[in-house]
Design brief:
This protein is of the alpha+beta class and about 500 residues long. The chain is about 35% helix and about 20% strand.
Length: about 500
């Protein structure tokens, strides 16, 4: 065996495979986008078979282009878009429908009924989550309600539910007749079906949602000393490699950023925006619209919990400027366009395309552009789009400080948007704290590699991982308190205008 660990990073818009050495440096990578399917307003789907085909392709490509053989990998980890729901036939491996993506709002009616029977916080004590369209449990219910074949297979014990981690692990370890059906604690904690303290499926909630327990995967640690299975020699790896690490994408970034101390925080700027704060071995309930979630669990150790704030639309807003409005032709152009003006010209964009997530949890919100005058041009729209990402992050930081009693001292950042220096500087300005980008910005894939590598002893412990982390660039606040306050006041006014549209 060689000195490498592989990680499948299956995200909302693309799948990539990355190979890391012992120092956490990238030895090989390949990436491929998949289709975004919008059958009707508010609905978002992915094709699970396309995601699996792309996974096979990027593994093969990364190995071929790097000259690293599959047999040189000591372990494989998975990180994934969370909450995205697949229900498939365990006998044939065929999904009963497209995957329902985390952003999808089709379960609004199911959630409304659940909330009406016991308020939106009825499961929060057990699960750490509000009743919301975001989570997987109601999506499973929707599939069983609307796909008779899935309902029949569930009754006959043939149906499997999984978030994308489960789907890929099952496929990688053999698929029909052979695959292992598991999910890690971080993904399980996003279903609205798992008890945060026992780390088991909650029978009472399953009964309420009429979800049969035998379609659910077995819950396992994020880093498991007992491999869940092995890749197949006839598959893209060409070798038997233990599959033993899995962690939802945002928790993977927490691990990749080595936020192992209580009070450490990171924000990932991708399709959405996700800020996680390590709260230690105690699940901390939120009174300010945040989610309590499992951060990670290493085999044989207690789980580490986090508070999380989720923003539905971050990088997706830049894609909207590109694809729907045609203001830019590539996402990277948004920074130059935003720099063409000195400020937002009084323009705010609230990108509530499918409601607002934390800390508002308002599915009735819709996107608005406010403060328009004849003076406003496309530069102001570009700047307002970037500022919307930073303001949404500020909303979450304020809620976290109220819940945890800890004031943020610095923010570690990662994800595709951290290349945008204008956004990073504005983020530091509006938070009033330093913003730090690490040398390896692909922290999500790195976190999955860390979980798999720890499981097989490739890395000896969390301290060794911390010695791999280096800062690449730090932005410090360069804005006065009055200007910061005025800007945020304008944002809050704009948010009010977005509410109550549905």
């Amino acid at each position: 065996m060689g000195g490498w660990v592989g990680a499948v990073d299956q995200g909302t818009t693309s799948t990539r495979f990355m190979i890391f050495d012992r120092r956490g440096r990238v030895g090989g990578m390949a990436q491929k986008e998949h289709r975004q399917i919008f059958p009707r307003p508010g609905w978002v789907e992915h094709d699970p078979m396309e995601i699996w085909r792309n996974t096979v392709e990027v593994v093969s490509e990364a190995l071929a282009s790097s000259g690293i053989r599959g047999g040189d990998l000591e372990a494989v980890g998975i990180t994934n878009q969370r909450e995205t729901t697949v229900v498939w036939d365990r006998a044939t491996g065929k999904p009963f429908s497209n995957a329902i993506v985390w952003q999808c709002t089709r379960t609004e009616e199911i959630c409304r009924k659940l909330a009406a029977e016991g308020m939106e916080d009825r499961f929060r004590e057990k699960t750490g989550l509000p009743v919301a369209t975001y989570f997987s449990g109601p999506k499973i219910r929707w599939v069983l309600d609307h796909h008779p074949e899935a309902r029949r297979a569930a009754r006959e014990g043939r149906a499997c539910f999984g978030t994308i981690d489960s789907w890929l692990i099952w496929r990688l370890t053999g698929g029909p007749g052979k695959g292992t059906h598991v999910t890690d604690v971080t993904n399980a904690s996003r279903t609205m079906l798992m008890d945060l303290r026992s780390l088991q499926w909650d029978r009472e909630i399953l009964d309420l949602m009429e979800i049969p327990e035998d379609i659910l995967p077995r819950i396992v640690p994020s880093s498991d000393g007992e491999p869940w299975g092995y890749t197949r020699e006839e598959g893209p790896f060409g070798a038997r490699i233990p599959v033993c690490g899995a962690v939802g994408d945002q928790q993977a970034a927490l691990v990749g950023q080595t936020c192992f101390r209580e009070g450490d925080a990171k924000n990932t700027y991708g399709t959405g925006c996700f800020l996680l704060l390590n709260t230690g071995s105690d699940p901390r309930p939120s009174a300010h619209g945040l989610i309590t979630t499992v951060g990670y669990q290493v085999s044989g150790q207690a789980p580490v919990y986090s508070l999380e704030g989720s923003v539905a639309v971050a990088g997706a807003l830049v894609q909207w400027l590109r694809d729907n409005l045609g203001l830019i032709s590539t996402a990277s152009e948004v920074e130059d366009l935003a720099r063409s003006v000195k400020d937002n010209g009084g323009v705010y964009i609230v990108p509530a395309f499918s409601g607002l997530f934390a800390p508002y949890w308002r599915p009735d919100a819709r996107g608005v552009i406010t403060g328009l005058t004849r003076y406003a041009d496309k530069g102001h729209l570009a700047r307002a789009a970037l500022e919307a990402v930073a303001y949404q992050t500020r909303d979450i930081v304020d809620a976290m400080e109220k819940d945890s009693g800890v004031s943020l001292k610095r923010l570690k950042v990662d994800g595709g948007m951290v290349a945008n220096e204008l956004l990073m500087q504005f983020q530091s300005n509006i938070l009033g704290v330093p913003v730090i980008r690490p040398r390896v910005s692909e922290t999500t894939a790195l976190g999955a590699a860390y979980m798999a590598g720890l499981a097989v002893g490739f890395w000896k412990g969390l301290e060794e991982l911390q010695s791999n982390w280096y800062a690449d660039k730090t932005w410090r606040p360069a804005m006065g308190e009055e200007e910061r306050r005025a800007g945020y006041r304008g944002w809050k006014k704009a948010v009010e205008r977005s509410l109550g549209w549905i």
